[in-house]
# Entry
Amino acid sequence: MTQKDAGATTFKSGFTAIIGAPNVGKSTLLNRILEDKIAIVSPRPQTTRNRILGVLHRPQSQIIFLDTPGIHKSEKALNRKMVETAIAAIGDVDVILVMIDAARPDPASEHLLLEKLPGNRRKPVILAINKIDKVKKPNLLQLIDSWSKAYPFAEVVPISATEGIQVPDLIDLLENLLPEGPPYFPEDMITDMPERFVAAEMIREKIFALTGQEIPFSTAVTIESFSEDPDRGMVSIHAIIHVERESQKGIIIGKGGAMLKAVGQAARIEIERMVGMKVFLKLFVRVEKNWSNDARALRRLGYS
Ligand code: GDP
Ligand code: MG
# Structure
């Protein structure tokens, strides 16, 4: 439905940033809200490196979400860059959605986060207490109480992003707080991230899922070429997996190339679902010494 045929009720539209420490469930919530796979999710922190836009189309509103990297203290160039991205997002939005993990307090990150919230009440800030499926009610009530005292939140909403508990209520709240206005984006658009970026994220997610330990933190994926052949109904993608050490390259390639093959297969299936075409995916692994702490390497890999 467009604004025109919405009748007497006014249409609302605006931006909201999901802000919080790493691993609290920001990407999970965004995926749940959009019922589509945009942000990558993993049990390890710091999976989200870039700002990702998701658009929720509702009959009376359009809510545009910015998923942000986790706010946390760090000395590393890459991590500091990620925190800057998240904080910059606060300034641009209509509503700020702060998220915490009910089951695992993170006082250092939470303190930093509270410091960055606007000092005046002009911009509404909602607190979502996530993962309530993992805590007992008295603990939850205590959390609600202490957080309500820490900042004048417009609302405090306990949710579970994985279970979907109170997520519709949260969406209603956000909608209410948006300014009136026409939609920013056409109805078929759910993200502004080009498909090649999402493809790289999907490959990175499979590396997270299939390899262990420190490997994912030392990994970046870039797409060298992404070409569509509509006549043959297929997309051909060449991607490079950047790692920091020879030993990591060995792990990603695996015995006889088995790991790389598994990553490629799993990623290909998801990319095919996204583009709606057959995908030919070719992966290369390249050693890029110390890239995650090197400003120049970061720029080249598209993180700044
Ligand atoms: P982000 O770093 O804040 O974007 O966090 P992610 O969305 O990547 O989620 C981090 C981890 O928390 C993943 O393993 C999720 O499955 C898990 N998670 C997210 N929401 C919930 C929830 O409501 N309940 C439980 N039990 N786990 C959750
Ligand atoms: Mg995330």
